[in-house]
Amino acid sequence: MALPKHADTLERVWHYTYLVICGLIFLFLIAPILIVIPLSFNAEPYFTFTEKMLAFDPTGYSTRWYDLLLTFGMDSPEGARDGSWWRDAWANSAWINAAKNSVIIGFFSTLLATALGTLAALGLSRPEMPFRRAIMAVLISPMIVPIIITATGLFFFYSKTGLANSYGGIILAHATLGIPFVIITVTATLVGFDHSLTRAAASLGATPSKTFFSITLPLILPGVISGALFAFVTSFDEVVVVLFVAAHDQQTIPRQMWNGIREQISPAILSVATLLVIFSVTLLTVVELLRRRSEKQRGLSPS
Amino acid sequence: MTAETGAQDALVTADGKPLKAALRAAQARSKRRAFYLVAPLLVFILLTFVAPILQMLHQSIHNDGFTMHEDVISHERTPLMVNLRQWFDENPRGTAPDEAAYAAIAADLLVLREVKAGGQVGTRVNYERSRSRSMFTKAVRRAERLEPPFEAAFMDLDEDWADPELWAAMRSSASAYTMNFYLAAIDKVRAPDGSITNVDEDRALYKKLFGRTLVLSLLITFLTFVLAYPIAHLLATLPLRYSNLLMIFVLLPFWTSLLVRTTSWMVLLQSQGVLNDALVGSGILADENRVQLMYNQAGTVIAMTHILLPFMVLPLYSVMRPINPSYVRAARSLGATSWTAFRRIYFPQTVPGIGAGALLVFILAVGYYITPALVGGADGTLISNLIAYHMTGSLNWSLAAALAGMLLIGILILYWLYDLLVGIDNLKLG
Amino acid sequence: MKTKTILLATALTSVGFAAAAQEVTVMSWGGSYTKSQVEAYHKPFTAETGIAVNSVDSDNPATPIKAQVEAGNVTVDVADVEFSDAVRLCDEGLLEEIDVSMLPAAPDGTPATEDFIDGALQDCAVANIVWSTVFAYNTENNATAPATIADFFNTADFPGKRGLRKTAKANLEMALMADGVAADEVYDMLETDEGIDKAFAKLDSIKDDIVWWEAGAQPPQLLADGEVVMSTAYNGRIFNAAVAESQPLVVVWDGQILDFDLFVIPKGAPNLEEAKKFVAYSTDTQRLADQASWISYGPARKSSGALVGKFMDGETEMAEHMPTAEANLTNALVNNFEFWVDNDAELNERFNAWLAQ
């Protein structure tokens, strides 16, 4: 992207303008995500920078909203912070309970999506798979069909089958939504997969399951893990299906946020947002490391 | 056939089968084996995803609110409006209601009162003709006091009982299977003679919303394209170690919770929010002239453009990265201006990426719900918000299903196009 | 196939946490209103009976419970709904009937049927409070203080955004009153097409300046943040924001619309007996009076009136903040529940079409 030496003034001007424009677009992408971080430390209940904050006056900042995340919903938030206080927080704090639900639902739906999705991806990546394209289209469709349509369908379906208001119902729905991601990432890993390896294992007398666990799985593991992370994030971030089919006391983090945003966006919401941003930075790092590892393993040049 | 078989008899496997047959059997076996791997997931998706959607589509053409009442606790089913439905069977469409018709309704109203189904039946008729529900609830309340001659008794209640539109609406409601919810979803209604006409101007809503959804989605797709193209190009032409670093700017939003991103935009766009404060603080705006950026279309467009931008950048990037820079250089050395070289050489090579990104962004945009619901206000909402409203607000589930059905058909066509042009296999994440 | 699906469903439904032995789920309107009920009803109820109370919030509980009963999966045992909704849902057979004999008498022995104010006892519902829709403003964002409902609709002299509830109810009445229609003629007028057109025309005149709200907690927030200069609101929410949180908010009582909130039990409630106990307990004389010390809504029992004292801060007298206080009733409208029972669905349909135009 370096400017050639013979560039004329107009080209130079254009080149720098172009870089500035790109900078602004990157700012547009990242600023809204970073802006919540300082604001979540606001000492006042506003969503904008107070004068004290702009002057970097320490009294303009506080962690009171993070504290509120813990205490909101507790029986006796005022007490001394001893063992029983923390037990109370663990049992009653609304956000902690939402987080517990989110993790439980996310864990089981990820497990289901990853197991089924990986198996299917193995079949789909075989050249002899019949109706490959059509089946692939069906399996990816949960990602394409608007979530509101899926949620509407599930509302009627679950009312009839007794799955409404149950954890099982949400887990099944979230697994469905996560499956396309698993399939996409695992099939992508399998693109460079050398099938002669499994044939060699088979010819040496390994059972199919032995072949899978000692040859195939270690090679595609990075893809499987990033697929699983995608599935987990999908579940962890999903609110519409939860709103439609979950019982009222089955709060998840996004649902609790949704309620909070609609009623009062206190900076407490921003502190949750900040925690979630940190969470996504961690996930992004893991996925990136996995991708590199996978490429190295398969001998692909990073591209 | 025999000659050929004879020629190939020489080629047999160790156990004496013809090779061709053995090969075919082996291929069938491996086909089956591949299919068995996919089968569990396919069954799972059919059960948890396809079946619910099919059931929803059934709901969009089936509503027995006028004909059947089911008790909430005992699940006992009572047929409704039996007498009137019989009258409809005996008299063709367009017959003016006679005393027998009114007597039939009067008898049916008593049943409605008994099982408390007046609201249910009235609501069903109201879907076909506005302001019918109250006529039913009022009539049910006075059902026991209705006496022959019934026609006069009904006219006493409300002269609208003679309205041909009401009778047409009741006739339509009398069959549980109907396409009228799809008609309603495009602002049409059945006239008394059975023909299809537009609804009143002040009740037309859905065509406008479909139109708005289309226009806003196109606008958002265009904006993401305009913003994504330069940075995808920059990322594709920078050395890898820089572009990998900058890629974080694209991937971090992609991995960040949708609700977090929407919340951030609310913080930025509020009239007392960061953006307006900055404009006022820097003296560009007077305090009383703060710009309304939220609870309107502007809010929806800005926030959704940001949220969908990564879906445009990634396909563009994956198309731009392998483009060989020597083509553009060659064009320049042959005397093309940089603009011409871009327009004639570079841009055409990126078109597949534009197509993939634009289709993906557009498909995702038409179905968006959360963001418009939070920042869209009244005029920035999309068709999804209306589906949600009919699901959880007005509880007109058949209409919600019909609207969802129409949206679904549109999406599936686009999806099919995407598969045709781009291929599902080429969908990449991060 | 069918049995398999059912087995799967059962297996999956059992995933999750074991429920407490005795509980009742109460759905109410969230925010400071739910808080007043938790303090005045839920906590003493649990202390006395050992039945745990799950509190869930909704923008308007009438809708989710209707959806739950119609879809056949009811999770709510008791819901707090508006008058017209209580009557409408009862008419449609979606609610359990409530036997008034289970309601306790007043301390002086007056039976419940005579102790509750007129209309507060219905076939399927027991009222707990009298509340009203009012409009309020932020003193810091208005140069001149609005004094009448006409000022709310006057964007020329009182510029700025207005918050309104995203529903037809109350907005149409207020629009007509702002248009000069006397309170006692409002519903007669709304029975006619011209009246409805007139109300929509009045709303249309400020449409561009409206920010719509749905949850009761939103108006005080919108007012405090300066997102709107005036907003319609439930009077108690404004009172709590002004008194408990010291926000500079003022209620304008001119053109207020009085209504009941009533407890109902949806048909198919999973904990029917506990639900009945809860309703009987929460609507006794002392509980209703207690609630009034947490939020400025009037108790639905006559015998509670004398027990209402000060706000929980210990200094604010509640009487003058009640929608029923003499001074606040000069231009007040009592919600005509019959009108809304019949016309709610139809007018909301038109309202939504109007919103989108």
UniProtKB/TrEMBL annotation, chain A:
InterPro entries named among the record's database cross-references: MetI-like, MetI-like_sf
Protein name: ABC transporter permease
UniProt keyword Transport present: yes
GO CC field: plasma membrane
Subcellular location: Cell inner membrane; Cell membrane
Residue span(s) of domain ABC transmembrane type-1: 99-287
Coiled-coil residue windows: none
Residues that span the membrane, as ranges: 16-41, 103-122, 134-158, 170-191, 212-233, 268-290
One record GO biological process: transmembrane transport
CDD domains for this protein: TM_PBP2 (cd06261)
Pfam family, one: BPD_transp_1
Gene3D superfamilies associated with the record: MetI-like (1.10.3720.10)
Domain of life: Bacteria
Species the sequence originates in: Harenicola maris
Protein family according to the UniProt entry: Belongs to the binding-protein-dependent transport system permease family.
Keyword Transmembrane helix annotated: yes
Topological relation to the membrane, as annotated: Multi-pass membrane protein
UniProt KW keywords: Cell inner membrane, Cell membrane, Membrane, Transmembrane, Transmembrane helix, Transport
UniProtKB/TrEMBL annotation, chain C:
Protein known as: ABC transporter substrate-binding protein
CDD domains: PBP2_polyamine_RpCGA009
Species name: Harenicola maris
Signal peptide start-end: 1-20
Native organism taxonomy: Bacteria, Pseudomonadati, Pseudomonadota, Alphaproteobacteria, Rhodobacterales
Keyword terms of this UniProt record: Signal
